[in-house]
Fold:
Amino acid sequence: MPIRLIVGLGNPGAEYEQTRHNAGFWLVDNLANSSGARLNRETKYNALMAKTSIAGQEVYLLEPQTYMNRSGQSVGALSRFFKINPDEVLVVHDELDLMPGIARLKKGGSAGGHNGLKDITAALGTHDYWRLRLGIGHPRTLSLQQQVADFVLHRPRREDQDLIEQAIDKSLLVMPAIVEGKFEAATMKLHTA
Structure:
């Protein structure tokens, strides 16, 4: 199945723009720019949204403006309206369990404590959607004394930001294959790059 909806997770507002939790927004912003799309506010979905073409496929780009833990409201509403199945959805999000610079693609699995994923799973009624996980590291593995909630809502160190941006760039290179439903090829390229 091709991907019809790419959701970037983050929190709206200037105070969150540069925080680790907004890595999903960063990727979708880059994807919109590279495909010539413009994200516009859609009050019906409480989100920024664009329709674009990637690898010859029509794709919706979505950035929920509900704050992270209510992301499912936007994803569920748009999916129902356009009759998009969960396995046609790719959610791009920050991942504490991966170091900065690493991106991983997977389908299904638990939310792993990620409130945005928990809410999307509840809205879609299944765990069976695709995830593109962008590593941000964990405060413990990065030898930081911050609590997780504080860590994700702060700006990464410059060296970590550079690595996250590299992971986004690698992810953008495999996005055409992901959108076409060539998940094995995309996974191999992304995980070995």
